Amino acid sequence: MAMVSQNESNASGAPGPGHSASPACAGAGARCLTIDVEEYFMIEAAHGVVAPADWGDWPSRVQRNIDLLLEMFARHDRVGTFFILGDIARDHPKMVRRIADAGHEIASHGTGHQRLHRLTPDVFADTLTTSFKLLEDATGQRVAGYRAPTFSIVPGTSWAIDVLAEHGVEYDSSIFPVRHPQYGVPDAPPAPFYVQGRDGGARVLEIPPLVWEIAGRHVPVAGGGYFRLLPQWLMKRGLHQARIQGRPAVLYFHPWEFDPDMPRMPLSFTGRIRTYTRLRQAAARLDEVMRLDGPWMRMCDVASRARPEAQERLLLSEAASP
Ligand SMILES: [Zn+2]
Description:
By secondary structure, the protein is of the alpha/beta class. Helix content is about 35%, strand content about 15%. The protein is globular and about 45 Å long.
C-alpha cells in the first residue's frame, strides 16, 4: 500500500504568515509556467547519440531561446520558475541573472542532464551542491526548488528524496503521476503531497506536473512533447479540471522547443517524433496558454501556500513502478 492519506498540517508546523484557511490561498487554482533550461543536445533523447564530451561540438542555442521566452513572459506580464542546469549556469551566468532580474524564480535542474538512475546518492548530492552554488552565485538568491532531469524520481531512485531533504530543498517537482516507459509514478497524487523515500525517512513537499484525470487514469497534459504532439484542448481540459478540483496546475516547457531552426541530431525514430514535431507551432501555442486567466505564480509561491495544506503522503519506495 503506497498511499497513506494523513493530515499533515500539524506535522508541518503552524501556517506561515499570510496564510488563511481559505482554499483560494492554498495554491488552489494557481497556474505555474515552468521552464527546464537545457541545451537541445543535452536532452534524454540524445543520450548515447551526443556524448557530454562532445557537447562543445554543437552550437549553443539556449540564450536565443531564453530571450524569446523572456519576451513572451514580459509581453503577457507573467512570472514563472526556471529549473536551470548547473552546466548552463556555469557557461551563462549573466543569462541566469537576467532571468532572475525579470522576476522569475531560479530553481535547480541538477548539474549535468543525467537521469538519477545513472547516479549514486553521493554523486547526486554533488550535483545538487554544484548546481545550487552556481545558481546562487549567479543571482545572490537562495535556491528552493528542484526538478530531476526527465522526471527521474521514481521508486527505484527513492533514495533521492533523502538527499533532497539533506540539502534543504523546500519543494520538488520531479514525480510525474503518469505511466511512461522512462519515468512516472502512476499512483502518485495529482495535487501537492509529501513524499518519503524510505520508511520513516525525511519527507519533501512534492508539486507534480499537471495531469488530467479521466476514467481512473492520469493523462499527461503538462507540456513538453505532450504539449506539441497532443491537441491543445487536452491541456485546457486539464487546466480546467485542476481549477475545479482546487489544485495548482504546473506546466513545463524547454527552451529548445521554441527553436525550429536548431541543428538536427541523428536521434532514434521515437526521439525524432518527440523532439522535432511541431516546433514551428510551439511559440503560438505557448502564447495562447499565457493568455489564459491566472493567477500565474512561481513554484516557490505555490509551495509556501500548499505546504500547510498538503495532506497525502506517498511512500515512494513502495509506489507502483511504470
Ligand atoms: Zn530536462
